[in-house]
TrEMBL record:
Name of the protein in its database record: Uncharacterized protein
Length: 152
C-alpha cells in the first residue's frame, strides 16, 4: 500500500514540535554558555587528573590536618606555625586543653572544631559546645559561631 504524503496540518504540527525542541535545547545551553563566559570556566578534559591536581594544590596550602581530610589553610599568612593535636586534650583533661589552647594557632583551633564536628562530639557535650563557641568568638568568626549554634 502506498503511503500518502503528510497533510499541511501534520506538517505544521511536526514543525511546531521541532521548533519547540530546538527552543528547549537552546534554552538549556544558554545559561551554561553565559556561566562559562562570565566565570571563565574551562572544560575538564580528564577528571581524574583534574581531581589529583586539586588535591595536590590543596595539600600545599593546608597548615593543619583534620580528620575529614579537608584541613585548614593559613588564616593570617604566617609561616612555620606549630600545630598541636588538641583533640585528645579536648576529649580528656580540660586543664591540659586550656594550656594548649593558649599557645595554639588559630588554624589549630579551627582544626580542633572541625575534628569535633566530624566526630559528632559537639551536639552531645555542653562543655565542648561552649568551648567551640568561645574559640570562634575569640577568632572573630561570628557567622560561623551562629551556624554552629544553629546546628546544635
Amino acid at each position: 500500500m502506498r503511503r500518502l504524503p503528510p497533510t499541511i496540518e501534520q506538517l505544521m504540527r511536526i514543525m511546531l514540535v521541532k521548533k519547540e525542541q530546538l527552543r528547549k535545547t537552546q534554552i538549556k545551553r544558554m545559561p551554561w554558555k553565559k556561566l562559562k563566559a562570565t566565570f571563565q570556566i574551562a572544560e575538564i578534559d580528564n577528571m581524574s587528573d583534574h581531581l589529583r591536581n586539586i588535591r595536590i594544590d590543596r595539600e600545599r596550602v593546608v597548615v593543619a590536618q583534620t580528620l575529614d581530610n579537608i584541613g585548614v589553610t593559613s588564616i593570617f599568612n604566617t609561616k612555620n606555625q606549630s600545630h598541636v593535636n588538641l583533640l585528645q586534650a579536648a576529649l580528656g583533661n580540660s586543664q591540659q586543653l586550656n594550656d594548649l589552647l593558649r599557645e595554639s594557632s588559630a588554624e589549630s583551633k579551627l582544626a580542633l572544631i572541625r575534628n569535633l564536628q566530624f566526630l559528632k562530639h559537639i551536639p552531645n557535650d555542653k562543655r565542648l559546645q561552649q568551648l567551640c563557641k568561645d574559640l570562634l568568638e575569640e577568632l572573630g568568626m561570628h557567622d560561623e559561631m551562629i551556624h554552629l549554634t544553629e546546628m546544635i
